Amino acid sequence: MSQEITPYLDETHIGKIARRLPQAIQERGKEIRTFMPKYGNINERRHQLHEVFVLSGMNIVINNADHPLIIKVASIPTARMQVYFIDNDDYFHRKSVLTDKATGKYFDDNDERTVFFNRGVIETVKKLGWAPDVIHCHGWFTGLIPLYIKKSLQRIHYLLKLKSSSLFMKKNLQRL
Fold this sequence. Notes:
It is a single chain. The protein is 26% helix and 22% strand. The protein is an alpha/beta fold. Strand 4 (65-76) and strand 5 (81-87) form a beta hairpin. The protein starts with 12 loop residues before the first helix and ends in a 7-residue tail after the last strand.
């Protein structure tokens, strides 16, 4: 999972890594699932995003308020790789990723957006009935996943095979 993946946003180092690493793993015969937030500046028509109704439709409660979880999916044809997008109008409708373009300041609700995204990924993985061997986290926006996995292992029986195998990218990979 990543806070950004190329080609859906302007190309950054983390976006390139989050695009190429899953493809390399998939090409070695492993099953992958890739997740990122569906920010408002991602062109749904150009990238052919469509909602997965069977996965959407639940609410995530943050600060005693219900926020609908919408799951969208698109493919990167050159990689034969699907990307799942975690969406919600309250948190991801803005035409900017993490900062206000006018002021350059981080959004005041980035903490809630992070919680929503991380919990949205966990709920989607549960709905998929998929038990990953490793969860690779790219960027601070994904930073709660290791904690959520550790805390939920006792409650989520099909994630038990994970045994808290999560990898958080703190430094950039130089060659990818």
